Amino acid sequence: MRILIVGNLGYVGPNVVNQLRMTYPDAEIAGFDIGYFAHCLTNAGVLPEVKLDMQYFGDLRQFPEQLLHGVDVVIDLAAISNDPIGNLFEEVTMDINYRSAVNLAKLAKRNGVRSFVYASSCSMYGQADDSPRKEGDRLNPLTAYARSKVAAEEGLEKLADENFTVTCNRFATACGWSNRLRLDLVLNDFVAGALVNRHISILSDGTPWRPLINTKDMARAIDWAVARPAANGGSFLAINCGSSAWNTTMLELAEATAEVIPGVDISVNPDAPPDKRSYRANFDLFKQLAPDHQPLEDLRSTISEIRDNLAAMSFNDGNYRESQLIRLHVIRAHQQAGRLNNNLQWQNGGQGA
After folding, report:
1. What's the CATH code, domain 2-183+211-248+279-298+345-349?
2. Is-contact 352 339, C-beta < 8 A?
């Protein structure tokens, strides 16, 4: 089997590579990535990509079709996956997350790829406080990122057929440890704040809902999608990936963090405007179709894992929200050094001007 993982040098990629190498020890697994965050390693004993057979660098917007020759499975993790970046670079977000994803799928289909797995998002449900949202419910994308995912799913659905299975994993909000950690995700942010500041600052009033999923369980869901036959869900499937136990409010997440890391105080912002990104997701279909790939991680063990790995890094940056563990600051640093232009394309081979 030959597997190509596009966007493997981000937050989720290291665990996906590890999972697939365990499941398919004899497979030829390659990565393709633009490399924005390749250097953002956190407590990594070895480079995660040593488990790959090949690592390619390039821009998904100019994807080299020859890399698809003989490939059986394509996994598309590549995305502008952060709302602040998406808001600043909305057209780039649509280009990468939507247009380039659909183009990649077209090229994959033309080259005989049998399975295409797309990392989608439950964020497309937007504001849905009344009941957990199912896959067929109305979508309400509120950000450039969410809109790009909706558009991509619509484009990918048109390509699926009996010879080309497309699975769109609508992931809950990612959390948990990675060898390329992000601290611009809610639970990861809370743990970092608790560890170094003994304080968790909730930017809302604490009531918004989010479903969460550990990156290890995201990798397990992708593992399932890789081998999913069309008979199990159809040639095209968009499916919520997560578990009902991880539908939580912001305040509940902060309180769980404070239980694991004692001596932490929590503040909310009662005067904050309502956070429209509040929703729960229904994961019954995922439980039905993927019974052997259900989430195994729980909230408290996830908090502990983040805490322990940050401690192992001697992490003590109380101003971490301005650090290189925040993806927007990495992009800004690239631009300030003249490495990226306003379309987030590398300049001068990625070197400063």
Report:
1. 3.40.50.720
2. yes
Q: Are 178 and 15 in contact (CB under 8 A)?
A: yes
Q: Name residue 152's amino acid.
A: A
Q: Residue 41: CB partners within 8 Å, gap ≥ 6?
A: 47, 179, 180
One-letter amino acid of 326: I
Can you tell me the distance from the alpha carbon of 325 to that of 313, in angstroms, rounded to the nearest whole number? Answer: 13
- DSSP assignment of 16-38 equals HHHHHHHH-TTSEEEEEE--TTT
Token pair recorded at residue 70: 């003989």
Structural domain boundaries in the chain: 2-183+211-248+279-298+345-349
Cβ-based neighbours of 276, under 8 Å, separated by 6 or more: 126, 127, 142
SS3 of 33-62: ECCCCCCCCCCCCCCHHHHCCEEEECCHHH
Interatomic CA distance for residues 328 and 349, integer angstroms: 21
Half-sphere exposure of residue 278: CA atoms within 13 angstroms, side-chain side: 16
Rounded distance, CA 246 to CA 279, Å?
Answer: 12
pLDDT tens per residue, range 86-143: 999 999 999 999 999 999 999 999 999 999 999 999 999 988 777 899 999 999 999 9
Arithmetic mean of pLDDT, 283-300: 97
- H or E element at residue 6: strand 2-6
Q: What is the DSSP string of 312-328?
A: HTT---TTGGGSTTSHH
What Rg do the C-alpha atoms of the chain give, in angstroms? 19
Q: Between vectors from CA 133 to CA 127 and to CA 137, what angle results, nearest 5°?
A: 95
What value, to the nearest 5°, has the Cα angle with vertex 95 and ends 55 and 29?
A: 20
| C-alpha to C-alpha distance for 242 and 152, rounded to whole angstroms | 20
Give CA 285 to chain center in angstroms. Answer: 20
CB 180 within 8 A of CB 10: yes
166 phi, psi to nearest 5 deg: -115, 125
